[in-house]
Amino acid sequence: MRTREELREVVLRVLGRIAPEADLKALGPAESLREELDIDSVDFLNFMIGLNAELGVEIPEADARKLSSLEDCISYLLSNAESR
Amino acid sequence: MSAKSAKMRTTYREAIRAAIREALLRDERVFLMGEDVGRYGGCFAVSKGLLAEFGSERIRDTPLSESAFVGAGIGAALGGMRPIVEIMTVNFSLLALDQILNNAATILHMSGGLFNIPLVIRMTTGGGRQLGAQHSHSLEGWYAHIPGIKVLTPATLEDARGMLWTALEDPDPVLIFEHGSLYNMEGEIGGDAGAVEISQAALRRPGSGVSLITYGGTLGKTLQAAEVLEADGISAEVIDLRTLRPLDTRTIIDSVTKTHRAVIIDEGWRSGSISAEITARIVENAFYELDAPVARVCSAEVPMPYAKHLEEAALPQVTAIVAAARQVMGRHG
Amino acid sequence: MPSLGADMEAGTLVEWRIRPGDGVKRGDIVALVETEKGVIEVEIFASGIVDSILASPGEKVPVGTVLATIRVEGEPAEAAAPSEKKPPEVPKPAAPAPEAPAWIAPIREARTARPLASPVARRRAEESGLDLSSVTGTGEGGIITLADVEGAPSRIEEKAKRSLATADQLTAMRRAIAAAMTRSKREIPHYYLATPIGMSRAVAWLREVNLGRPVTNRLLYSVLILRAVALALRDFPEMNGFWLDGAFKPGSGIHVGIAISLRQGGLVAPAIHDVDKKDLEELMRSILDLVNRARTGMLRSSELSDATITVSNLGEQGVETIFGIIYPPQVALVAFGALTEQPWAENGMVGARSVIMAGLSADHRASDGHRGGRFLSAIDRLLQEPEKL
Known about the structure:
The complex is a heterotrimer. In chain A, helix 1 packs across helix 4. Helices cover about 55% and strands about 0% of the residues of chain A. The mean pLDDT of chain A is about 85. Chain A contains 4 helices and no strands. Chain C is α+β, with helices and mostly antiparallel strands. Chain C is built from 8 helices and 19 strands. In chain C, strands 8, 11, 14, 16, 17, 18 and 19 form a 7-stranded mixed β-sheet that branches. In chain C, a hairpin with a 2-residue loop joins strand 3 and strand 4. The longest helix of chain C is centred in the middle third of the chain and has 33 residues. The two termini of chain C are about 40 Å apart. At the B-C interface, helix 12 and helix 13 of B face helix 1 of C.
């Protein structure tokens, strides 16, 4: 079972690969990823694929909107990443 | 400056003699024995004059039987004395190896810790003096293999002067290897020079680019090599091991951690040598600090030749040390 | 030095990925070249053995300059290329010491694909996040030493450097865009058409298809649009190609440039090759890969020079209708607006529908408005049967 901190690291690492120029340290926990990082639908799909590769988590399309902020991502992964 | 601490000129030979003399004066349990140590004054003239000063009870000539007089020394030590046994050369010490390994190094263990052997054995080691294959080898690395003894290799006047007393104070057997080419080494030493500690290697020259690790007879050549390297822009650190058993691994590792490169200079044969042991310890303890493979400069794996040019070619020389250091620094030509 | 765009005059060699003696095959990435579009991976156009390297990293050379020569296997080398298989050097003491017998000579491992680095260099590289394959070794036999690692910029420093360079690069990219767009508006007589396309079927079909798919196989509607444009182009070859020297030259395949905006500013339009021959899954993977590489700064030479038409999808910003400017010497650009819900009348009934506005900008020298309109209608028709795409 991964801790919040570990999941946070994974999320930031995957985001870093998609938006290397973004200042992820400045990203607030509740800020919208799409807005703050200027991420479009292709980037976002790459993000979900990245999470899948790192954590093996399968995110149904209907759940994509639950991943709108960093905090949302961590909470979602906490309840879904390990329940396979 | 007091008269006592004023510098005085001396030689390696005289420094050892002064150490023996001091021991004889300080502790009446101390005596010296060996082949020709009395009337002849020692094969290398180390004990010259001591018979006249201390008498035949304390400066004892022995028959030509290394096994017998080393055994007698062990017995004397068991009986409460503090014997200094001199063996002419390390090659001849092999005749006493049974006494040294099976008795001196082992009795404390076999007696369940009841009997210590406070024995000191001095002997000459090394080549370079055209004495042929039966008088010129460097086998101190073999002795460093044996648990239960200490192996000292004084390379400086201070250590020649100071290691003996500390060795005599030790409750267990201590072997002191005096490199034959050092007896005439001359220099200044503090008038108050005395006992030195024997548990640590010494940094003889600080440097940052490569660690040259050596002991005994090759220290001088290694320091010369460091000079040559400095002129070439390579900063070499020189470590004098001083004691081969127990080996001061800490100092070696600290140095290699700083320089990331090591060359070991050892007059012994390369295969199964103390240089191999040092290499292994570096790899065991500082593998992730290494920036180049560890290099060794050792004697050629032949019986030491008699002919001068062949003997020089067989022994580690300054040029070979410089070449090995340049190689680990990635320098060519 | 390959031409990586109509307006490129010179490029700076950043790094070699090959060394003399290496075998290469067509399509291998052999070098990195910096242009105003960023750092581009250069692919090799022939297979063989690298004979000689003629340009060094850091050198800026005009387009057309020979950077390296390769020879076909079997052909003799021009100059004696330094062989990688040279036996390891045996240390020779300068001293009169006898030559070491073979059994105590140093035994070195044969060279492997893994970069040879000293243990401390390897450890330091790991600590500073440095890729050893990007470091040139200066130690004995080319081994990477601590000094090589400490001299090399770490990934973090590199990023900082890149963002500094990005400022320069941005102005360079700005200038390149300015030159291309000015030329376009000066030379190309554009005509513009737009038509709303109903997307309800496409969206519903996508939703159903994606339901059963793992995230790695999921499709976005952009892939349907891209595929529809490519298939429509088969019947409208005059939209697919270049206007060169006063005549239309059809493209050799349907290579669709995707306009990708960069977050730091500027945009690139790298091509996906043979879009009409790829299925949706393959196409989707290409889009994901291309967008990610464009935005993290590593495109390939063929991607930058081969596009025969451009598709722009600014819809995500919420814009409804777009009339783009053609990227010369191409002759058409199709731009899609936002996917929105609109009141839609059909068969006398008004209902809510997903709608997207398709806008065509085309070169009037190569085609006319009539054909342009039919082209847009063809795209529309294709999007009504998403299952056939």
